[in-house]
Amino acid sequence: VQLVESGGGLVQPGGSLRLSCAASGFPFSIYSMAWYRQAPGKEREWVGDINSDGDNTHCRNSVKDRFTISRDNAKNTVWLQMNSLKPEDTAVYYCYAQRGSISYWGKGTLVTVSS
Questions:
Q1: Can you give the pLDDT at residue 112?
Q2: What share of the chain in percent tops pLDDT 70?
Q3: Which of 8, 76, 102, 106 fits a disulfide with 95 by CB distance 3.0 to 4.6 angstroms?
Q4: Residue 27, SS3?
Q5: Vertex 68: Cα angle to 66 and 56 (nearest 5)
Q6: Could you give the dihedral angle defined by the CA atoms of residues 22, 38, 81 and 67, in that order, rounded to the nearest 10 degrees?
Q7: Contact 103/96 with Cβ under 8 angstroms?
Q8: Which among 9, 38, 16 is positioned nearest to 96, based on CA atoms?
Q9: What integer pLDDT is reported at residue 59 of this predicted model?
Q10: What is the DSSP string of 71-91?
Q11: What is the C-alpha to C-alpha distance for residues 45 and 20, in angstroms, rounded to an integer?
Q12: Cβ(59)–Cβ(89) under 8 Å?
């Protein structure tokens, strides 16, 4: 099983990034997917999730007007589109797959928002 995040990097405040998570080794299309993040010195927190069909998403209040989650089950990929980035969005972003009691984590990709 692999979840491989990509797309992180350094971006100025107000900028955008699109994170990708490529999945393999499990039946991606029947798993709900989520993004989490962990800022330096803080606990990991839920960012948002998407159901297996891709027709229902949720995001935390602090990002819901700026971030969008989507997926393509044919490509075994989930994305996190992040717009209007703020310094407080700086964190390692993790991809998470879950179905019932089974879950998998990616290793994360670093997003730094700074001028």
A1: 98
A2: 100
A3: 106
A4: coil
A5: 130
A6: 140
A7: yes
A8: 38
A9: 97
A10: EETTTTEEEEEE-S--GGG-E
A11: 18
A12: no
CB neighbours (10 Å) of residue 31?
22
Q: Is 76:24 a contact under the CB 8 Å cutoff?
A: yes
Q: If you average pLDDT over residues 61-88, what whole number do you get?
A: 97
CB atoms within 10 A of CB 41: 5
Query: Which residue bears the tokens 């839920």?
Result: 46
DSSP of 17-65: EEEEEEEESS-GGGSEEEEEEE-TTS--EEEEEE-TTSS-EEE-TTTTT
User: 58, 47 in Cβ contact below 8 A?
Assistant: no
What value does the mean pLDDT of the chain take? 98
pLDDT in tens, 25-61: 999 999 999 999 999 999 999 999 999 999 999 999 9
Largest CA distance in the chain: 42
Strand partners, 52: none
Query: What number of other Cβ atoms are within 10 A of residue 107's Cβ?
Result: 11
92 sits in which H/E element: strand 91-99
pLDDT (0 to 100) of residue 103: 98
